[in-house]
Amino acid sequence: MSDEEKSYVDGLEEHSELMTGKPATPDEITKNFALYGLSKRVDIIKDFRKSLDRDVDSDVASLKKYASDVSQLKQLEEMHARLRKAKR
Predict the structure, then answer these.
(1) What is the pLDDT along the chain (88 residues), one digit of tens a residue?
(2) End-to-end CA gap in the chain
(3) Torsion angle, CA of 39/45/50/56, rounded to 10 degrees?
(4) Residue 59 has what DSSP assignment?
(5) Of the candidates 68, 62, 73, 64, the residue with the CA atom closest to the CA atom of residue 33
(6) Where are the alpha helices (DSSP H) in the chain?
(7) DSSP 3-state assignment of 23?
(8) Are 70 and 52 contacting, i.e. CB atoms less than 8 angstroms apart?
(9) Which SS3 state, helix, strand or coil, does residue 81 take?
(10) What is the pLDDT of residue 11?
(11) Burial class (CB in 10 A: 0-12, 13-18, 19+), 87
């Protein structure tokens, strides 16, 4: 898979695999996201949104991956909103 075809989540999973020897699960990504400061979380959300602004193939696997990525972004945005509400 070329770098252009990788989603933001694929990059996070790959980074985690390099660091820990196993890819991060979506729950681990969300949990780790909560540890970052405000500006880092905003940057991650912006980068994630930008990565979703791409053409999606109409095959089932591509659509499932895109839906999974959109779901992950929603979880991160909800976590960010809860942290902002808690003044973090």
Answers:
(1) 555 567 788 888 888 888 888 888 888 889 989 999 999 999 999 999 998 888 888 899 989 989 999 999 999 999 999 999 999 8
(2) 37
(3) 170
(4) S
(5) 73
(6) 8-20, 26-33, 38-52, 60-85
(7) coil
(8) yes
(9) helix
(10) 82
(11) exposed
Q: What pTM does this model have?
A: 0.82
Q: Which residues of 31-55 are buried (b: 16+ CB within 10 A; e: fewer)?
A: eebeeeeeeebeebbeebeebbeee
Q: By the 8 A CB rule, do 7 and 51 touch?
A: yes
Give burial (CB, 10 Å; 0-12/13-18/19+) of 77: middle
pLDDT one-digit tens code per residue, 67-87: 999 999 999 999 999 999 999
